[in-house]
Structure formats: structure tokens, C-alpha cells
Write a structure and sequence with these properties.
This protein has 300 residues and is mainly beta. It folds into 2 domains: 188 residues, no CATH class; 94 residues, no CATH class. 8% of the residues lie in helices and 34% in strands. 30% of the residues are buried. It contains 2 helices and 19 strands. The strands form 5 sheets. A 5-stranded antiparallel beta sheet has the order 3-7-4-5-6, with no helix packed on it. A 5-stranded antiparallel beta sheet has the order 10-14-11-12-13, covered by helices on one side. Strands 16-17-19-18 form a 4-stranded antiparallel beta sheet, with no helix packed on it.
Amino acid sequence: MKQSIIYILILISLVFSQDVYRLNDSTFVYPCIGDSTTMLNFVGLPLESDYVIASDFDSEGTNINSISRLDAEAQGWYTAGHHPALGWGTDFPVETGGAYLINAINDFDFTVTGDSVDVVYDLITTSGSDLNFLVHPLTKPELTMAGVGIGDDIGYVGTLNRWENSTQQWVGTTYNSFLGWLADYPTEVGMPLMVNMTADTTWPILEKSENNLESMNNTITSPKINGGGPRVAYFHYQDASGEELDFPEEASNLDFSAYIPNRPGEVLRKDNFGCGFTNIDGYSVAYINLGNFPSSWSAG
């Protein structure tokens, strides 16, 4: 009997030490801690739910008295606040895939119930601190670490931070060009994160099937200069039947990831500067400027 009791206590401790746990495919739970002062908790909306505006998180203000989101373009905050007598003020819309800091006044479980949908983030740099919020998407369950998982998959990431509500502090991993990801930590689907970007990109790149695209692997032409400088590489693309794809109509459904094999964390995509799709003398092509990789490239 004693062994059974010990086992149950350990199991409970493990469950409630997590920042997020997935009950099933349609429910995520974020254990929150609170008091009457400032107890911030980081929660996300990994599912398409019934939450439309911030006050929907707690319409009566029973457990939450403020909800904040970061505006990546302005590098500033929007906050909805609740007053016991006046209710919610300065409300704002919330969206699937969004991550939010809430101030909890009680211990409670913030529960998100809904449907799984694909979420894509436009991650940007600014003249400020280049911070973006995201939620570990359901389409990336194979990524189990913040740095070597999500950071490398996104590319152009300087730091990845999670919020530790028990200490009221950010816990982060930082990329070092010599040592890799420092103080890396595990992550899981549904975990909200704050990412510092070093270049604009779109993530994750979802699978496109409209044209049954097989590959883009036939280089058409490229002026040759010394390695490390600007150089445009063009890649011919066709559908599975060998037909040219119309530009720009069909190309608008496509995206690509371009990287040097030994540096998979440095990725160029169609929305990066010097990259995109076009038509050259009847050929459908994708193009990248090798000079826009963060690190210098070399022939071969």
C-alpha cells in the first residue's frame, strides 16, 4: 500500500509541474497560479476555440484581472483589465495560435477546448527588441526542444523564452554561433513562447498539395562570383505531370525553404528579401539570393 501511495503522489507532482498538458486532441490545460497582486501566467490558444475577445477568457473576472498581448510591430502591449465594479475595459480580439500573459488572482486551470487548425506565424524584426509571441503548433509535435527543435526549424532566432510562473521569470535559450543553443530546454505542443528574431520569416511552412509539386532541383542559370557575396540561384519547378505552373496565380500557393546542408538553421523563404517566384522566358522559377544567408557561403 505504501508503494502505491508514493506512486500516486509522484504522478500528481509530475502532472502539475507542467506549464501545459494535453488532455486529448480537443483540450489543452494551462495550470495557473495567482494571488491578489501580480502573478503572471503565460497561456496560449493552440486550438480554434470559442474565445473571441480577451474578456472571454474569464467574463466575470473570477480568476483573471488582466490579459495582455504583445504587438510585434510596435513592440508594445495591449492589455484588457477587469475592475470588480466596472467589469472589463480596453478589450481586444484574440486569435487561434495567439499567446497571452494573464494576471491570475486565484490558482486555476485555464482550459482551451476546440478544433485543430493549421497556424502560420509571420515572425518579424523591428527597430526595437524583435520580440514575437507564438504557441508551439500542433503541426510540429516532432520538435521536442526549444533551441535545437523550434529555433533551428524557424531559422533566424536569437533567443527563445518561456515563462516560469512559479518564479515569475523568463527562462531562455540563446543561440551562440560557436557553442550552439545555450541552456536549451524541452518544449511541447501548446507551449507559449517568446522568440527574438534576427530576420523576418514565415513559420511553419505548411505542406502545399494544390499542384502536387514534387521537387525544385534543376538549376537554370546563375552568375558566378566569389563565395560569400550576393548571388541569385534559380530553380525550375513544375507540377507532377511536367507542366509549367502559372505565375503568379499558382505560385501564390507555394513556398520553399532554402538552406546550406551543414547550416539547416539558416533558412531563406519566398518572403525573405531577394527571394521569391517569377517567370523567366516561359520557365516557372523560384529564386534566392545566397548573399542573404546570415553566414557567409562558399562554392560547393
